[in-house]
Write a structure and sequence with these properties.
single chain, 296 residues, alpha/beta, three-stranded mixed sheet, 10 helices, globular
Length: 296
Amino acid sequence: MFKLFSAKKREKKGEKKERFTVFVHPLFLLFGVWFYVRGQIFLFFTYTAAAVLHEFGHAMYAAKIGCRLNRLSLLPCGAIVSGDIDGISLSDEIRLALAGPFLNAVCAVGFVALWWLYPDAYPFTDMAAYACAALAAVNLLPAYPLDGGRVVYCIAAKRGGEKIARRLMIALGILFCGAFFGLFLWSAFVRLNVTLLFFALFIGAGTFGNKPQYQKIRYDCAEELRRGAEIKKVAVRKDCTVKKLISYLERGKYLEITVFDEEGEFVCEITQSELYAVLEKANIYRPIADYLKDFC
């Protein structure tokens, strides 16, 4: 996850600064050693890079809906991001889950297009293309902590409630964990594949662990103003949602919002700093009109 709106969050005076952290699981290192011993360390790094790219896809959509990533965990068969997304809709959570596989798929297609234009590039990019395609496909499996599991959970929650969704995900998690473990046992008699064991443990941990989530963005534009920033002006009606206003934020620019009523009459102006204050308490799906009393 990548465009992190800086690796640390500047807080109000006197509060501790929160940094974006990367946790490397010991089994991830063991997995790397296993690939090194087998002479496949480049393959290991390629899949790790594809996994980080995958999380960057989540980061881009998370930023769009006012969430940020505060922790990336590298595990033997993938990566998980954590935080808090209380308050976002199930529909947005589905889009958030699909953003990662989508970016991997786009990159895989891009590599194929590159081969079409420049065939000589194939030997240098084939492994990256296959890694991106594999991660896109595998992450659509309907089991936690994979993105497909999050999508199925949200759809089930919308149709039958979260209690039923949780039961469904536990059942699917046990099913897929058992399936991959069974494949690992079978591989022991054919050609040992330790990756299947790690993947079974990965799904088992996701099924009975905490759901991967995100955290709302907290901004501080003091550094940008110190360097000097271009002003970006946007005019909206007061029924514009906070989520829509977040989409106008642009790195390196200072946002000024002019708010009008339904008849086109001027209501007030909101600065980027004031918008950040709104984000501390706002439901991003509510119109900005609900929070204008603090500024107008």
